[in-house]
Amino acid sequence: MNIKPLGERVLLKVLPAEEKTESGIIIPATAQEKTNQGEVIAIGESENIKVKKGDKVIYDKYAGTQLKKGDQEYLIISYSDILAVIN
User: CB 3.0 to 4.6 Å from 9: which of 5, 38, 52, 58, for a disulfide?
Assistant: First the structure.
């Protein structure tokens, strides 16, 4: 995929929602909430962006513009919509 975000925008690959709880209970697809986690695929040219390619992040629930390529979902969001980096 050749998408280069502009300015303070970040391209994320949306990570799938958890299908099982820590105790082993399987969550049916109809009860799963939309995930708010993604992996940074590309970043804009702004020097203010503090994430890098490959970082896993948590973002605002209703942030960004959705893209779909095959079965994979992507999201272009503003850097300010990223809440945290997951280690």
Answer: 5
DSSP sequence for 23-47: TSPBPPGGGPPPP-EEEEEEE-S-T
Token representation of residue 53: 């390619």
Find out whether 22 and 29 touch, Cβ atoms under 8 Å. Answer: no
Q: What is the pLDDT along the chain (87 residues), one digit of tens a residue?
A: 688 999 999 999 998 766 666 777 776 666 556 678 999 999 999 999 999 999 999 999 888 999 998 888 899 999 999 999 998
Residue with tokens 């490959």: 54
Task: Note the pTM of the prediction, 2 decimals.
Answer: 0.80
CA dist., res. 35 & res. 69, Å (int): 18
Q: Are strands 9-14 and 82-86 parallel, antiparallel or unpaired?
A: unpaired
| Strands 65-69 and 56-59, bridge-based pairing | unpaired
